[in-house]
Give the backbone structure.
Amino acid sequence: MKISSLAGAAIIALATPMAVGAATGPLAWQNRALSADARADLLVRAMTLDEKLLVVTSYYGTQVEWNKYRDPGARRQSAGFVPGVPRLHFTPQWQTDAGSGVATQGVAVPDLQRTALPAGILTASTWDPEMAVKGGAMIGSEARASGFNTMLAGGVDLLREPGNGRNFEYGGEDPLLAGTMVGAIVRGIQSNHIITTIKHYAFNDQETKRTTVNILIDPAAARMSDLLAFQIAIEKGNPGSIMCSYNLVNGEWACQNDWLLNKVLKRDWGYKGFVMSDWGAMHDTVKNALNGLDQEAGVQNANDYVYKDKLKAAIQDGRVPERVLDDKVRRIARVLIASGAVDNPPTPDNPIDWAAHEAVSQTDAENGIVLLKNDGHVLPLAGSAKKIAIIGGHADVGVLTGGGSAQVYPRGGSAVHGEGPNRWPGPYVYAPSSPMKALQAERPDASVSFASGRDLDQAAATAKDADVAIVFVTQWTAESMDFPLSLPENQDAVVDAVARANPNTIVVLESGGPVLMPWIDRVKGAVEAWYPGSKGGEAIARILTGKVNPSGHLPATFGVTATDWPRAKIDGEEHGKETFDVRFSEGAAVGYKWFDKNHIKPLFPFGHGLSYTRFTQSGLKAAAKAGTITASFTVKNVGSIAGKQVAQIYVSPVAGGWEAPKRLGGFAKLDLKPGQSGAATVTIDPRLLGMWDSARPGWTVKAGKYRVTLATSAADMGSSVVVTLPASHLPAGRGVSK
Ligand code: BGC
């Protein structure tokens, strides 16, 4: 069988014969000449109550004994299965995690090996939406080739807590960047005629006690921060579904939160897809049903919730009108039909073009790895560096991946065994892509030595004997836990020992988010490689040797100490089973906005990323047009090698009055040869020029002067021009994003 192409254009042959074109009768909905809306309507009309109820509950998909609802129709190692409606030939839903590729549920044996795209935070670091579309298209094609029509990807909660164990799955701290990049991943995934999610809606910004934490946030600040990231991602990616989160928001569980689901998502944003719960995030049937939850996901235990049964009772005794169920089923059916998942059902176990897919993953990594520090041009490695010491991080065998439901087992399985928690969300999984071997292949003329880093003296001795020492440090992060910002397992001491032994020390970090770097002044170079995916070792080696010129930029601020952020410690550990409050008092001042507002100097600012060439940014012009601002400028590569620059536009009202001094208003990544100039024009989403107005729901842009700054990071003064805008008001659901 032919598998879908990367762009998802090729279609797999139909698995189920369908009565195409039936004009009347129960199968009339299959008429492909009709719109998805019309077909969904016909389908709902043809369904009995019990058939409708079949569509609103998903069962845990993995075949383990304790999964009471395991169904032979579910697909291997999967997170969810919604039975179809056989009488009407309506498709089952085969649901798989997650944002870096087809995941293996932690309890599943053997692992389902698939290509691991780098972590979401790395893809966000590319600042290149087209790159994200390609990555999404690749993992979506593997989902289809594995028999899935629903991918549980699209994580876009803002990086508000640097220690959040799931930051690696998300798109960083800024609503425009995160929304744009995650929306692009979603678009790519769905180009395979399957649907995906955006998750976890909303404010699931910490994992500690995620099922009982009640996030308190001012509703206007909410609209201007995490919710704006979701809104932009939805506009850009048009996801078939939204996954509501485990936590409470302003006193109500997210999956039964009328404000979040009915008012913001479905009314204000006009969202036409469906809302699925996170796995087991249900509480109250009537509230779930009436407040906007469409599909329960992940039932597994005998005492689990089972929406469909409770909903049936609620409909029969009149607490929930049947038309509410009809709307849910119609939403689910419509997106599955519109995506092509119904007419072109995926089948499992199709071959995968590993080389092509791993190349996509490697290119993503090469564009998202961030060169943080490069004193004295220690990088790229000089030809004169003939003895290279590599220390720590299992760099002799692989690169780290993030844990939990998003865990992808790359081809070949984990390169490291027996480390980390021995139960979910562990263990540590290393993609078998060795930076050391890749470096040796790039530099056959050099002698490369390795020390594990477990013995400080041995690490120092290995480093001392070399021209340059590269220390790999890792911080595993995972769903369901949060993490301290300091590197674990004595790795700071390893860096110190190596830096003392060798003046040419470079640190390569593999982390899921910001970490503290007490040694930064004592090393010459630092590279943030995040979790770089199936070919991360090759990507790192090519960046270190200069085969690839780094062009990743930070999608999140790196602070000096934990107290730089609004909360030095994530709250929750001490609480029992009862719900408890965490107030996001910083409101919309997330990340660099918080640092700016409080005059905190970061270790590395949002937007930061070095290159092996040099760029100038000039000629900034900005004009008010149609209620917003358009900025144009020129970037020139004034160095001697080709490279990519991420030019950033920040905006701020001259008179102040926002949640923070400035916001990212737009960005452009330009690929330039030595001596080449490139022009770019950026149109600012008008929501980024306004404040959410709760009294008159919508975005109010005040008349006045606005500063437009062309910069290379949130800490760069850059160059500015001032533009005068008239007052305007935008309704809640309208922006310029497509
Ligand atoms: C996670 C979701 C995931 C689901 C299914 C939950 O624990 O929060 O992100 O999609 O499990 O595996």
